[in-house]
Amino acid sequence: MSSNAANTPVLQVKSLGFPWETLDPFLFCAYHDDAYPQANADMGPAASLAGRTIGQDFSRKDGWSMYHGEKVPGFPPHPHRGFETVTIVRKGLIDHSDSLGATARFGGGDVQWLTAGKGIVHAEMFPLLDEKNDNPLELFQIWLNLPAAAKMSEPHFTMFWSHDIPRVTATDDQGRSTEVAVIAGRLQDAGAAMNPLAPPPDSWAARPDADVAIWTLRMAPGARWALPAAVSAGTRRQLYFFKGDSVQIAGQAISSPSAIEIRADAAVELINGEVEGEFLLLQGKPIAEPVAQYGPFVMNTQAEIAQAMADYRRTQFGGWSFDSETPVHGRDPARFAVHPGGREERPAEMPASSRA
């Protein structure tokens, strides 16, 4: 539904589907919230897979899906060109492998930012490691478009570990807290204490005037917080209210789950309802170029889509160097990343409750 009040900052409210609709420069957001059961010896679910279309299971039967996985849930190797993926893992783990030679295991609030550029193939598998307890998985994957000038840029692999992500806690006059995790952009009222993370070099988010922000918000019951105005004129923003019961935005009551487009040129007061509320904010100045999409390829014209398909058939975007078509990285839960060229990172372990 759209708001008809002339002066309200709430421009539009829609129900959330799958995937979530987004505004330019974003292409969409997929929210996965899977209640996986105990693990079996193969790092898959210790449960019958009967009744699922294996290889194409988005059923949410029993509260979870196998997606394109056959034994381990997830997404085996698939190509991309012309955009970026930003993957925020709040619970569980993702095992990443790609045609650049990079591998990673990440979760617990970690973020992977992958510029597909001229072409990359990657796998994203969801290993289940706990054979005694349930294995919940919760993540966002956001597709951020690239402008025409950067669509054929070199692919780029970036990890933002949970402990490096700026987090700001604001407390209202009743002592109720709002916590903001700042994956992209700068939270203006946080002052000099918050050093923003650097997006990949060819990203639309790397341009200061593009005003790209990706934030997650967690509001205590009854908390009040003023969402600050965006930096640039022409910025558009959408707030995804995905957990909670209700929120008032500039006095307008909105129920969860909803996608809420908000005017970006002024601060807006949020008042959470009676239970903890959680939100994802996506904002940016539109790229405002034609979008031609065919599955995993996002270009500006259909001719460029045809070229992408031809290039992939010819080159496989660098090919697949791993022995397995569904690579997982063993039973050790420790998070790590091996970058193209071999540089290795092993972040400090985070508490199990940490999430973005």
Automatic annotation (TrEMBL):
It comes from the Bacteria. Residues 68-144 form the Pirin N-terminal domain. It comes from Polaromonas eurypsychrophila. This is Pirin. Residues 215-318 form the Pirin C-terminal domain. Belongs to the pirin family. It holds the Pfam family Pirin_C. CDD domains: cupin_pirin_N. InterPro entries: Pirin, Pirin_C_dom, Pirin_N_dom, RmlC-like_jellyroll, RmlC_Cupin_sf. Residues 323-356 are annotated as: Disordered.
